[in-house]
Amino acid sequence: MTSTPATIAAGEGSVKALTQAGALALDSWMKSMVELARLGVTLNPLLQSVAEAQRRRSCEIPPPCWMPRPLGEIHSLVCPGGTAVVRIRVTNCQARASRVRAAFAEGKFAAEVTPDELVLSPMERGWFTATVAVPADACKGEKTERLLWVRGCNAHYLRWTVEPADGVASSCHEIQVDDCPDPIHHWYDHFYCDRPCFERTLSTNYRGS
User: Fold this and answer.
1) How would you class 162 by CB atoms within 10 Å of its CB: exposed for 0-12, middle for 13-18, buried for 19 or more?
2) Is residue 26 classed as helix, strand or coil in its secondary structure?
3) Which run of H or of E encompasses 41?
4) Which pTM does this prediction carry?
5) What are the backbone angles phi and psi of residue 207, rounded to the nearest 5°?
6) Which phi and psi (to 5°) does residue 53 adopt?
7) At what angle do helices 45-55 and 5-43 cross, to 10 degrees?
8) Mean pLDDT, each 10-residue run in order, the chain (209 residues)
9) Is omega for the bond preceding 115 within 30 degrees of 0, making it cis?
10) Per 3-state DSSP, what percentage of the chain is helix, strand, and coil (rounded to 5)?
């Protein structure tokens, strides 16, 4: 059979179409494999831990499980005479009932938490409402930072800055606290030991010298 320019062009078109189809199929397969791998990491807690460890610096040691857990920081702007509000949703992640208390550390401006205690059944949620009242004669820039503690299975703390400001009638925030036990023995637990603060060590070892 004699090849003609038409048959040669048709053959080249078929080869090009097959090549493009193969490339598209390979690209689709690769995307599927990447998505499956990503999904596998997402659903596997062990792989998640490995991925998290890889993201950390090699010398970084996480805080011990017995340290208070930070809930972050919030900043409220309130008119003098107004009230800043934080609503705290606490989830009891245990299979038994838990008593959870909330209270402010000492600080400037009147503050209160209602209720001051919750008794949550297994997996139950409850709410605290914390308020800080700004005096009517407070000056602009006269801000205060309050520590709000939530103590249940663990100790959690929130840094809350309240500042008088013009043109703001109220301030309301919501935060979530998952009060869950940590039964896992972590590799970095071995790096921690009880070291007293310098002042306590000094008063013990050098008292009377």
Assistant:
1) buried
2) helix
3) helix 5-43
4) 0.63
5) -65, 130
6) -65, -35
7) 90
8) 54 61 73 67 57 61 84 91 93 93 88 94 95 88 90 94 79 91 79 70 50
9) yes
10) 30, 35, 35
